[in-house]
Amino acid sequence: GSRRKVLLVHRNSKKTAHKINSSWWSGVEMGPPDAILGVTEAFKRDTNPKKMNLGVGAYRDDSGKPFVLPSVRKAEELILSQKLDKEYLPISGNAEFCKKAIGLALGDDHPALTDGLNVTVQGISGTGALRIGSTFLSKFFPGPKTVWLPAPTWGNHVPIFKHVNMDVQQYRYYDPNTCGFNFTGALEDIRKIPENSLIMLHACAHNPTGVDPKDEHWDELSKVIKERKLLPFFDMAYQGFASGDVAKDAYAVRKFLADGHKICLSQSFSKNMGLYGERAGAFSIICNDKDEAARVLSQVKILIRPLYSNPPLHGSRIVATILNTPELHSIWLNDVKGMADRIIAMRSKLKANLEKEGSVRNWAHITEQIGMFCFTGMTPQQVEKLTKEHSVYLTKDGRISVAGIASTNVDYLAHAMHQVTK
Amino acid sequence: MASSRFCEVQQAPPIEVFAVSKAFTDSTHEKKVNLSVGAYRTDEGKPWVLPVVRKVEQELAADNTLNHEYLPILGLEAFSTAAAKMLLGATHPAITGGRVTAVQTLSGTGGLRVAAEFLGRVLKYNTAYHSAPTWGNHNLIFKQAGFTNIAPYRYWDGGKRGLNFDGMIEDLSNAPENSVIILHACAHNPTGVDPTQEQWKKIADVMEKRKLFPLFDSAYQGFASGDLDNDAWAVRYFAERGFEMMGTQSFSKNFGLYNERIGNLMVVVKDTACIVPMKSQLTLLVRGSYSNPPCHGARIVSRVLNDPALFEEWKGCIRTMSGRIIEMRKGLRERLEKLGTPGTWDHITAQIGMFSFTGLTAAQAKHIADKYHIFLLSSGRINMCGITTGNIDHVAEAINDAVCNITN
């Protein structure tokens, strides 16, 4: 009767208590799934031969295959033949790489560089460079420990700052009505940002929208940001990859410097050199003078050491070799223009095909936007239909990776997009 | 010009090991010797890229099916699985029972940082213990990962130039529950002093009783004794005892892949159901730090560990490196005893791995640097790899001079 019940309850609670104490990990909750990974997983499971993966953020050639740049292959051969050692890099990384990377961004003979005003360290690609930046700023930035991000922005920007206990806020950026840049909204919001704050800007080929400010917009943004005394932190992950022209893609960065801003900059060579898995990136701060640069560098190194001691060499060596060898440098400029041109061609074809299908919607943004991604303007419901009925995989926000489109399937995509939006 | 935001940033103190290395590089003295840096050197005093590594790099370069695409966030699985098997042994019950998971990390440092972030931010542990002394970066890593209580446990006994075992046991006995205990799997850095198997058993007893969490730092497997299984004895024993634990692995020294940053974080759990949620949390930590790890080093190590012939070839390379170090230890001790250098010198051969805590004082170290241009750390730590048949007499002479003539 009741005595037996009591014994059972006692045994069960003992078992539970034992289970709680027996493992360290039982309290570990499941983390939220990665949205983009989910798209790829679902794509893999689909058996439709016409399926398209427009979720992935990596370049594909016209056969839908990963592309190893000819300049990279040549650089690798050269490096292999040199039989160099594998000794630890300094904490700040491969010095030649750092020099050429910031030189690519600003121009090799930029006065800030010849005057030694820059701190440039190698980072684990763009993410790692941003993380070095956020860690340094969380410790040493004298203004509010908040970063102002464009709405929307690359999803990973948020944890990169939150993990170092910084706050994140947003300023208007994307206008869903025009699928373009909300210039007025951005200026309004930026004018309200507290003075001496930190603002993040995508240098070119905004991720995820593909929407970039025009040069005149950048000129005005520079003025307002200066008026508010904000520190601009540029994320440049697509230099050369956006327009096919490395100088053009660096317009904003160079203009801000010319206007007197002392910027922070993160660079990635994942896309423009196809070095994704080699993790080649750089973080830079432009300082007031050489002495300040030396002090800042010493502190940055202290922050890198407990992260991973010193960075991986392989990718940085490839980048340095390419940028330092005139022949390889010009092959690379060709390679990156080739990638940019193919993407621009796919944008044109997609828009033209949508019009041929008889779509009456305004698709101008497809060719006005730039870089790997396109915010199509499709709703989550339309996206779901696109995936379910046509096996086209993309993220809920209507973002497509143009790099995933080939001349063999751009018609199919246009047809499918028209079906779900007409 | 407006005043700068960063004008208040102070110059950071230099990190000793890099400063000493720089002093060596800057020295123009003909007979200079670098006993400070933690990297292997041949008998010619040169860096050594393992022949098996060069061979594999050629193979990888010739393989046109390979590209530079992103690795998964948690790295190359074939690498992580093989590395975990190398540490625990492929037939270890924890492995065959599916209770081991592993993720690729940015060498040993990166593994320790991910481990510390997980233990601190996900499990909410705030206390960590490290040996006194320990690798300088241990403290910094745990501090940056948010641990508020970082304390030493006694380890080095300067008097007997060995392990202060009683002190270590006492300190561990007083550690609060859930403390993370950083243990060096073998070839303790910087002392070269490892516990015996009997001592490891007693350490395990205390840690079990006090519910302390073992975090093994394995940076020298194979490199210490020349035998992979020997050097993993402590890690395997703890896993067999049923501990839940973590082990970080570095392939910098035993593969000579210093600058490719290849490492592994291995976790042993009791309940296999924990593995999926744990990996999802590790994924978030990695994504916010560097997104995904570099592929080059992972490919090299994976190919070697997964190919029986290459694996044998690599084991030969490890025996070469550890063998040369053991020779230099013998030679240095013999010379010091022959010179009649005051004190006992058997610790030089009793210690194991790359480093030796000689017992030299900071003043003696300075004297050796100034007079002989032989550079070592102020703790008296020397890197045995810096000693060659060409300079061993010179080094012995310098030590003898310092011990005889420089007192505190």
Automatic annotation (TrEMBL), chain A:
GO terms for cellular component: mitochondrial matrix. Gene3D superfamilies: Aspartate Aminotransferase, domain 1, Type I PLP-dependent aspartate aminotransferase-like (Major domain). Its cofactor is pyridoxal 5'-phosphate. The keyword tRNA processing does not apply. Its EC number is 2.6.1.1. One of its GO terms (molecular function) is L-aspartate:2-oxoglutarate aminotransferase activity. It is found in: Mitochondrion matrix. Keywords: Aminotransferase, Mitochondrion, Pyridoxal phosphate, Transferase. Residues 50-416 form the Aminotransferase class I/classII large domain. GO terms for biological process: L-aspartate catabolic process. It catalyses: L-aspartate + 2-oxoglutarate = oxaloacetate + L-glutamate. Its main location: mitochondrion. Homodimer. In eukaryotes there are cytoplasmic, mitochondrial and chloroplastic isozymes. Belongs to the class-I pyridoxal-phosphate-dependent aminotransferase family. This is Aspartate aminotransferase. The lineage of its organism: Eukaryota, Metazoa, Ecdysozoa, Arthropoda, Crustacea.
Automatic annotation (TrEMBL), chain B:
Its cofactor is pyridoxal 5'-phosphate. It catalyses: 3-sulfino-L-alanine + 2-oxoglutarate = 3-sulfinopyruvate + L-glutamate; L-cysteine + 2-oxoglutarate = 2-oxo-3-sulfanylpropanoate + L-glutamate; L-aspartate + 2-oxoglutarate = oxaloacetate + L-glutamate; (2S)-2-aminobutanoate + 2-oxoglutarate = 2-oxobutanoate + L-glutamate. GO terms for molecular function: L-aspartate:2-oxoglutarate aminotransferase activity; L-cysteine transaminase activity; pyridoxal phosphate binding. It comes from the Eukaryota. The keyword Repeat does not apply. Keywords: Aminotransferase, Cytoplasm, Pyridoxal phosphate, Transferase. One of its GO terms (cellular component) is cytosol. It is found in: Cytoplasm. Pfam families: Aminotran_1_2 (PF00155). One of its GO terms (biological process) is aspartate biosynthetic process. Residues 31-399 form the Aminotransferase class I/classII large domain. Its EC number is 2.6.1.1. Homodimer. In eukaryotes there are cytoplasmic, mitochondrial and chloroplastic isozymes. Belongs to the class-I pyridoxal-phosphate-dependent aminotransferase family. This is Aspartate aminotransferase. It comes from Petrolisthes cinctipes (Flat porcelain crab).
